[in-house]
Amino acid sequence: MTTLDAHAASHYHALTHTNMGTDVTVRAIRSEDKYAILDLYPTLSPRTLYMRFFRVIDAPNLEEISRYTDIDFATQLAFVIELGPSKQLVAAGRLIRATEQSKVAELSCLVVDDYQNKGIGSVLVRELFEQGRYWGVEQVIALVHSENHPMLRLLKSQGYPCEMLYDEGEFTVTLDIHHEPSSDNRFSYRSSLGAMHQGI
Ligand SMILES: CC(C)(COP(=O)(O)OP(=O)(O)OC[C@H]1O[C@@H](n2cnc3c(N)ncnc32)[C@H](O)[C@@H]1OP(=O)(O)O)[C@@H](O)C(=O)NCCC(=O)NCCS
């Protein structure tokens, strides 16, 4: 069985493409990415920041950003997406787990505003789930704002068994990534009664 240890995860690099045919590079986050991320923060809309952090946040400083870039790949699997010859950084996401042995991880991700709705988030999450499985994760949990329809669609369409529980304006989405994704699972999900009234 394929496995991804912390060292291999920290060197992960893959060329792939979005469902619209755009070539992208998916690679492990690096310490030096903190400078590009620092420059990107002021370009992010309040809505994007709110959907990611569930609150209004001030732009973080370099030291705060380094918590996302200078990481232990035993407990965090963090990837970025680069575009084109300039290697423009347009998205970042991670799975984070309590210990190296834990089979449950929490997902977070962000695509910069100008590149949203172009299939980039889907590629990022697909790669995180696929490599996350090799890394040892069987279940992924994501907390998603109930108005974050792109993220909810993205998660439901990955092809993994998916359960969504609604409470107080947010969904806890649980995905079983233990097995290969299957088209049988696309848009097949279980949700709480509250979720069904959200019209998603
Ligand atoms: C949520 C987010 C990661 C999605 O990434 P993306 O690159 O914009 O999404 P994609 O283009 O891959 O599209 C994903 C799905 O959402 C749909 N979608 C994307 N943008 C949409 C929009 N504005 N309105 C409606 N549907 C949309 C796509 O059609 C696609 O559906 P499909 O899987 O059935 O084809 C990105 O929009 C983002 O970073 N948002 C702000 C931060 C955030 O919400 N992070 C997640 C926190 S849990």
Task: Please explain how this structure is put together.
- This protein has 7 helices and 9 strands; from the N terminus they run H-E-E-H-H-H-E-E-E-H-E-H-E-E-E-H.
- The model is unreliable at 193-200 (pLDDT under 50).
- The chain has one domain: Gcn5-related N-acetyltransferase (GNAT) (Aminopeptidase, 3-Layer(aba) Sandwich), CATH 3.40.630.30.
- The chain has 200 residues and is α+β, with helices and mostly antiparallel strands.
- Helix 2 packs across helix 4.
- Helix content is 28%, strand content 30%.
- The protein has a 9-stranded mixed sheet with strand order 1-2-3-4-5-6-8-7-9, sandwiched between helices.
- Coenzyme A (COA) binds at residues 48, 51-52, 108-111, 116-122, 142, 144, 148-151, 153-154, 157.
- Keywords: Transferase.
Label this structure with key terms.
alpha+beta; disordered C terminus; 9 strands; Aminopeptidase; 200 residues; 7 helices; binds coenzyme A
Mean pLDDT: 93
Q: What's the architecture in CATH terms?
A: 3-Layer(aba) Sandwich
Largest sheet, spatial ordering of strands: 1-2-3-4-5-6-8-7-9
CATH class: Alpha Beta
User: Helix tally?
Assistant: 7
Task: Give a concise summary.
This protein has one domain: Aminopeptidase. The protein is about 30% helix and about 30% strand. The relative contact order is 0.14.
Q: Which helices and strands appear, and what pairs or packs with what?
A:
Blueprint: H1 6-10, E1 13-17, E2 23-28, H2 33-40, H3 46-53, H4 62-69, E3 76-83, E4 88-96, E5 104-111, H5 120-135, E6 139-145, H6 149-156, E7 162-167, E8 170-176, E9 189-191, H7 193-196
Parallel strand pairs: 5-6, 7-9
Antiparallel strand pairs: 1-2, 2-3, 3-4, 4-5, 6-8, 7-8
Helix pairs in contact: 2-4
Bound molecules: coenzyme A.
Coenzyme A binds at residues 48, 51-52, 108-111, 116-122, 142, 144, 148-151, 153-154, 157.
